[in-house]
Design brief:
Blueprint: E1 2-5, H1 11-25, H2 33-42, E2 48-55, E3 58-69, E4 76-85, H3 92-108, E5 112-114, H4 125-130
Parallel strand pairs: 4-5
Antiparallel strand pairs: 1-2, 2-3, 3-4
């Protein structure tokens, strides 16, 4: 088991992980393969990150993030787009993904790192708090 940058060969496995995340998140629309491919490629560019948890050559987890300017000032932040690990492969490998993300954020010059948790899912806030994250805000969505 290792954490590494995503490669072209990982595309199908990452798309499977995105579909699984989509189902868990209960998004009110169907997953779009073309959009998923574009999302992967956007996170393989400079200023972005696409990590996979490689288990025997297969991506069993994905963590995508971007380095962006904070919306209220010149404060670079790392913003997670998705972090999803196949339930059968959660544990130390997932923590190694978080370690790699945090290291990348520091190397990129970010001053803050953002993580998110899905409402109604297993609460990961205890993990984030143990790792030094603080609650910043809660988001609400309304379908219209």
């Amino acid at each position: 088991m290792m954490v590494r940058s995503a490669e072209d060969k990982d595309r199908a496995a990452i798309l499977d992980l995105l579909r699984a995340f989509h189902a868990v998140a209960r998004m009110p629309f169907e997953p779009d393969v073309a959009y998923g491919v574009a999302l992967i490629e956007a996170h393989r560019r400079p200023g972005a990150l696409c990590l996979v948890l490689d288990v025997d050559g297969i991506a069993r987890g994905v963590l995508m993030a971007q380095a962006i300017a904070h919306p209220f000032g010149d404060w670079p932040v790392a913003k997670e787009t998705i972090w999803f690990v196949d339930p059968a492969h959660r544990g130390r490998g997932a923590l190694k993904m978080l370690d790699a993300y945090e290291a990348w954020a520091k190397e990129t010059g970010c001053r803050s790192i953002g993580m998110a948790a899905l409402a109604g899912q297993r609460d990961v806030s205890a993990l984030y708090l143990r790792r030094g994250y603080a609650t910043a805000e809660t988001h609400y969505l309304k379908d219209i």
